[in-house]
Amino acid sequence: MEYMSQEGYDKLVAELRQLESVELPRVREAIAEARDKGDLSENFEYHAAKREQARLLGRIRFKQRVLEFARVIDTKRLGSDVVGLLTRVEMTNLRNGARMAYTIVSPHEANLREGKISVKSPVAQALLNKSVGDVVEVRVPAGVQQLRIESITL
Description:
Number of helices: 3
Order of helices and strands: EHHEEEEHEE
Radius of gyration: 22 Å
Largest sheet: 5 strands, mixed
């Protein structure tokens, strides 16, 4: 079971449609053009197009499987008293005083540039089910960090 936001689900559906309706027909057309050029045993374009088709089919199957097991979370039923999936957490690094804010999302929606971290990341795992004011220790590649939760919102 893969829980995600409606936005993340819609994005995955759009990516799957793009792959199936635009990318795959383009690759199939490239295979047909390369096949028309003659000897397939030494035809680089044909082999490259077949590899691309295999890669695309793998991505399509992966996205189909994710969507098959995806469940959209109703944000109206979530509380903001503890850290959980789809909550935005503001925290302070107690070592250097730096403040940061992240939204905890499914691994398929994670995007650090947008401030979205995977629920499976070490930071999110340490924060889950904690409340405002709690101090958590997180083991990251740079060592152990202590983070104090300042606020939790949806």
